[in-house]
Amino acid sequence: RRHVGNGHLQPVKALTMEAHTGLCSDGHGMEQRQRSCGLGEVDCVQRRPQTSPQTSDAKSIACGGCRQARDADTRRQRGGQRSVRGLGVGAGRAWRGSIMLVLGALLIATDVAGQNPRLLENNGGHFRFGNIRWEKLDGNAVQFTIESAWRRDYSSAYWKGTGDDGLAVVGDIIHLNGKQWPVFNYGDDSITSGEYLKLQVMAYSKSENWVFGESVITHTYATPNNKGSPWVASFTGCCKLSQINNKPQMDAPWLLQAGVDILKLTKSPRITAMPVVSLPDPPILPTPAPPASPQIPKIPVSFYVPGFHPDGSDPTVTSLASPLTAVSGTVTAIEPECDADGKVTLNFHGITEPEFADAGQFYFLKVNATSPATGLFVQADFLIRVHKNPDHLMPQIAFGTTDLKNLPGKPTINGTANGVVTAHADGYVPGVPPAHFWPNASYQAYLGFEVNFTIVAQDPNRLQRLGFSAVGLPAYARVTSAQGTNPVQIKTYWIPCEGQVGRHVMCYEAVDNFGNASTAECVDVKVDVDPVPKFGLATDSDGKYQSRSVDMDQLVLVTMGALKSYTVHSYDDNCLDQVDIGVLGRLPPGAVMAPQKAAPSPVLCDFPSAKQSVSRTLEWMAPPNYGGNTSQICFTATDILGSCYGAGRVDTTVKCVTFKVVKCKYSVGGEHQLGEVARLFGTDWLQIWKQNPAIIHPDYILFSGQALDIGRLYTVSASDNLHAISKRYGTDLDMLYQLNNDLQGKPFMAEGLDLCVIPNSCKGEDASVYEGVSEVRVYQCKGGGTNDGAVYPSLQACRAACSQTGGTCSSLSTVG
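^ that's the sequence the OP posted. Answer follows.
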């Protein structure tokens, strides 16, 4: 679909779109990625897997949506309607590095009579912008990527392309040449000789007369570094602009350098910058008449050139590449400064009338991005345009809404000219200063989960119509067509794939009818591997009134007859992930897991998924024959896969909790009496009443949840056996087994074990517990690995077997 003049969407027959994914197809089964091109139409480029090898000869494949839409639009505009032309074409194909887009809003006019100023960009040399980055391959091989921008209408035969004007457009390959042949020097006496460097065109602008792209080359060094020092690779050639304000750069060669040492880093720092940086104009001051020379105060104008390391962890410092000479010899002294975050400040001493130009003032400036830990650096050389037309005010740009973890909510722009701007773009709210761009925020994303954010722009002149340019977009990122005219917004969608862990900085600028651009703003996104789910504190509850928060490593005590509620809480640091809580293995008899619920999250999420933080409750009423039982219940927290060719992963976290049922304790239900409790344990109400002296009258109705002692705890000594204990206390072996689930029906017991017994004074004996009983003593191995728990007839035999596996022996007794 594409936008037409009345703001509605019409289908283009040659192009189909899936609205829920933003992908489109050319009808031949090719999965492609949406982008925006001239006149706000929709075009497509081939989608390449992230892991595909990169070569400068590879061509992107564009589907025919834009061309057919443009032809149809042209036919509709005939018959007296004024012809207009779009700002340019959108992004090229997905590269392993970054891509640049030029996004046209509805009917952006650049050829309207009286509104097409003479551009200083059109004069002199053809170099506009360049930077270098590198990445280690196998062995000592290094892949260099050169991003560069050039004058599009340069007259060389090697500069021609497939555009309707015969010049290069997205997907074309340019052979770089000039007055001085562009050469890449690897720093080890090797250069790119014998052929031209090839530029894969990724974006262009007719109105601003530039073309942008990447050159990718590889080189294998003999050694990882130059005898302990870095190799210094360089890209040079000629020429820059003729009419620029810093005179030493007029028609001068360019030189970009990068330090390479693959023992210190596997990837270089990076710089993301627009090919032409637009700045607002300082006040225009009259030229003082000689010999007067009044003191003119400094007027600072600032912008950011983000320098960063792609792995996201190595700090990077930005600085001027040549602080003393970068802009020396200017007509107006600007005393440039640059801080570590890449904030470049031009300190103008006033602008005088003879320097006025309708299209602005131009300076070339070069910066370094350096890793302080290693000293390795890269450089970027770019063009600065100081806006100098008071009748054509610059657009403004601001952040919109996003689903990222810690991004702000509403856009932030003030309307000042011709009254307050009405909200045309969704989510636009005037009145708050712009914020949350680089370097004020760094936002968290994860492999396999969508990153999306909206950029909003407006022009103080309500009659202007706006579009966008963007640089630094990672592979697989896609940008919607511009929505609205003034204000206007675009939305960036991106699902990070394998190989995209690290930091990504995307910069945007708004462009109006006159070709005036806003000062660029950049979004800093750090991508990490999808984290595993986590367990938080659990809630341990007995009945309605006793509840506490506990660590899941703590032992959980369960009272027979009481409903134990144990609520497990799990969450994911990835706000877009979803968590499900489960259980490994079988639950104890009578235990059930309640349905999962949403729970408050300890992670600050503006837009969490429905299951980013959840809880689930285990409910268990231990039966009367479970006293002394110990059960280990293992809870699981499992997240989801994510997408982008399985870049995300399913992670499961397991946490096991030990539940122990208290012996000789029973919690009664509502309106129970002592007789009912006594029957559960095969005794009479007198025995229960005797064990609970706090019960004043045996006929009183017990309150729900009241815990009763139903017997006495007896600690087993070394000479004890079950038969003797049962005879002495007037009970039988079956009752001892029922009251002591941990005996597991075995005839022997460990010294020091607490037994629950219900004495019967009528059947108990006064004689010694040992009278008439033959005792058989056995020995049990404890903590002996494979022999743990094994029973031996003699201490000697136990020690012989148990000591080999690091265990110890303890005595047991049983009935002879």
